[in-house]
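Message: A physicist's question: would you kindly supply an amino acid chain plus fold tokens?
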Amino acid sequence: MGRTASGEQKYQIESLQDNHREMIRLAAMGRTRSQIALELECSPQMVGYVLNSHLAREQVNRMHDMADMSTIDVRKRLSELAPAAVETLAEIMLKESSSDAMKAKTAANIIDYAGYAPVRTNIIGSVSLKREDFDKLRARAISAGLVVEETDAEPLAASEVLPEPLEANA
């Protein structure tokens, strides 16, 4: 323990003990100083001294470096396995005994992994109706209340249906 220029006491951590490492680990997991203090039965100020110490910061940096290296190792391993995975998917897709659904799913996965957008099927068609078919459909729509019966009234003029255009200065 030492004193700062203002005369306050300030603790300097000289070596990390097991409880200090536990404080760092809990902080890395997202716990607050108060939660750590409660769990480890110490004061929040003590947790603050430990977490703000240069030794704790070095430990956190080492933890980040180790996590980064682990990520790099995993990525490297995935890169090594990718060609074999694609070959396996190709074998499944080309295998005679594979179901059509399995082949389609495998093909879609390969296309997705290659970075292409998923295949979408849009069915657009046209239907030719005879006048009697159209009349039957219209009668069903009217009976279901989906269409209002036509009247013999004159059609409305466009000015009666459409709103007035907005003026540019308004």
Observations:
- The chain has seven helices and two strands.
- Residues 54-94 form the longest helix (41 residues).
- Strands lie at 2-3, 9-10.
